[in-house]
Amino acid sequence: MRIAVVLFPGFTALDAVGPSEVLARLPDAEVRFCAAVPGMVPSADGAVQLHAPDSLAHDARPEVLVVPGGPGTRTLVNDARLVDWIGRVHSTTTHTLTVCTGSLLLGATGALNGLEATTHWLWMDALAAYGARAVQRRVVEAGKIWTTAGVSAGIDGALALAARLAGPQIAQAIQLSMEYAPEPPFDAGTPDRAPAEVRALVLERARTGRFPSR
Amino acid sequence: MRIAVVLFPGFTALDAVGPSEVLARLPDAEVRFCAAVPGMVPSADGAVQLHAPDSLAHDARPEVLVVPGGPGTRTLVNDARLVDWIGRVHSTTTHTLTVCTGSLLLGATGALNGLEATTHWLWMDALAAYGARAVQRRVVEAGKIWTTAGVSAGIDGALALAARLAGPQIAQAIQLSMEYAPEPPFDAGTPDRAPAEVRALVLERARTGRFPSR
To answer: A119: Cβ–Cβ under 8 A, 6 or more apart, which residues?
Structure first.
């Protein structure tokens, strides 16, 4: 099974690596990263640079396409080359998984029109603008399209997809091998559970690119 | 605040990228990857290659050192250059965070002797062999040393460390920005909760490097 993860400057590192860590553990699966310009692709955080050996011209016809999100999507939803590539590759996948604002890139292809889909909680309106029925859930399955909430939700989505692809026992074994029994130190992972001051900090970061110093 | 993540061939990608995704969001923090041979460092899964701009000779004296784990640690605990570097850098950090079997590399420096520490559930005996009091918990704090359980536990450990470094409000804002409200599709993330057949699959993968095909 060929699994392609498409990278672009300004992707969020965990959006790509969470699902790739899960899906690369599937038996008989090969995960490959690709990008418009092969080579090192800088993530949004300035620290992670991931290597994409394949260019978008490389016609792999993967069974599974993974589209991460990140600040880079804000301009790249208007990049015809990337959006066309996603639309074309998606047309022959068995499953397409988006993480965070990766769903906006898929939305820009028209593939989400009329479908239930999700994204990072800050970008629900942008998702709806592509004709999707935007819902705030962790993982949304709509036919072969799986969209997930912000950043870390890609791990949950990939595990659910792994169960579909290889059965629940292998998916559980992947979960156990990654010791994925999360214990977040706070209960602040969704906008309704986080305090208002915490939400305000995230809105400020969305506007300025960083959290304020103390 | 300088945060160094040390990479080596055969590191587990999520061990490194989970914490880097969290810690790079701290205000006034810079995360940098380093490795014995700077450049592209291949992870254990064969797909992820992360770029390390700095060599171990680059004397950065980071405030925070992150040591990921992965299959590469099995031989690298005997690599004097890497182990000496970890011991030397650790000696001047304010905090050192290990993920998964990264604690074995720190253990090989002697730094865990007599301390409570944890690692991936499969490697508790190896950790104890370094004189640590090995405990099966998600995150273990022992003075400035934070050790975490397998792979995904680095996210929880890094969030707890972020709270220590920048206060609980910023840590919660990081959590919310990553929408870290996990919903694993199964309850199989620890050896006591996973069915026996699932545990057997993970033991087989530890032996052979992969899960069996169906």
So the answer is: A69, A98, A100, A101, A102, A103, A104, A126, A127, A134, A147, A149, A150
Task: Give the integer Cα–Cα distance in Å for A150 and A15.
Answer: 8
Helix (H) or strand (E) holding B140: strand B139-142
Contact A156 B50 (CB under 8 A): no
Q: Which of A13, A67, A100, A134 is catalytic?
A: A100
Residue A201 touches partner B, C-beta closer than 8 Å: yes
Q: Does the structure's ipTM exceed the value 0.95?
A: yes
In total, the C-beta contacts within 8 angstroms joining chain A to chain B are 272
B98 bridge partner residues: B67, B147
Segment A179-192, tens digit of pLDDT: 999 999 999 999 99
pLDDT digits (tens, 9 = 90+) for A18-42: 999 999 999 999 999 999 999 999 9
- Closest to B181 (Cβ–Cβ): which among A48, A175, A189? A189
d(Cα B138, Cα A162) in Å, to the nearest integer?
Answer: 24
| Residue in this structure with the two tokens 């000779």, named with its chain if needed | B57
B177 contact A CB<8A: yes
